[in-house]
Amino acid sequence: MALVWEADLPPMEKLVLLALADCANDEGMCWPSAPTLARKSGQGERTVRRCVQSLIAKRHLTQDQRSGTSAIYTVHPCQSGTPARAAPLPERPQTPARAAPKPSLTVIASEANASSALPRAKFPAPPAVPETVWRDFLNSPKRRKAGMSETAYAGIVRNLKILAEHGFPPGEMIALAVERGWTTVKLEWVLNDQERNKRHERTDNPIAAAVQRLSASH
């Protein structure tokens, strides 16, 4: 590609030759289709074909047309009218697994949300929270959308510690957050939730018992 940049060529031809060089392997060989070259160079297919023929005539490019397959190109940009010696063409194209074109130098941003795969090693399950429950929490829709940062993680661990001091097991609190669709869990949220649902709670429910103990202590 560095040789292509130095070549004295019209803009359209240089774009096509750059697209070919971007697809080429270490021997300068590639076999992209016309639509691929059109997409890479930002030009129409007819323009691409005209540019290819012109590049061949100017000895910047060698084309080997094979029946029933895409043409094989060898890119050898020349600077002074004398082309570099091209590598011998193989009898048939190498398999894609062994000689796939090099990836484009253009970095394309992934459409996937970066927060969809949270680093578990960086944000491990807090103390007394089962790994499976913590994984469900990280993968819950609102938590995935919000993402996880060091500040958010520290806040969750701190809130769980406060809840544990008041008799609320951390594992059950994270499970409750998953059930309620919370992105974190707080003491006041748990108390309010239990107050709204106290008529429907079983007497042996550990959360309800903890609320009762907390109320009695005050």
Could you describe the 3D structure shown?
The protein is mainly alpha-helical and 218 residues long. It has 2 domains: 2-84, Winged helix-like DNA-binding domain superfamily/Winged helix DNA-binding domain (Arc Repressor Mutant, subunit A, Orthogonal Bundle), CATH 1.10.10; 118-217, no CATH class. 49% of the residues lie in helices and 5% in strands. It has 11 helices and 3 strands; from the N terminus they run H-H-E-H-H-E-E-H-H-H-H-H-H-H. The protein has helices at 2-6, 11-23, 34-41, 45-57, 96-99, 131-138, 141-146, 150-165, 170-180, 187-196, 206-217, and strands at 29-30, 61-64, 72-75. The chain has a 3-stranded antiparallel sheet with strand order 1-3-2. Helix 6 packs parallel to helix 9. The termini are far apart. The model is unreliable at 80-87 and 104-119 (pLDDT under 50).
Strand order of the largest sheet: 1-3-2
Overall average pLDDT? 78
Largest beta-sheet details: 3 strands, antiparallel
Taken as a percent bin, the fraction of beta residues is under 5%
Q: Note the gap between the termini.
A: 76 Å
SSE string, helix = H, strand = E?
HHEHHEEHHHHHHH
**Structural domains: how many:** 2
- Low-confidence region ranges: 80-87, 104-119
Structural class of the secondary structure composition? mainly alpha
Count the E strands.
3
Q: Gyration radius, to the nearest Å?
A: 32 Å
Bulk shape: rod-shaped
The proportion of residues forming helix, as a percent range, comes to 40-55%
Count of helix runs: 11
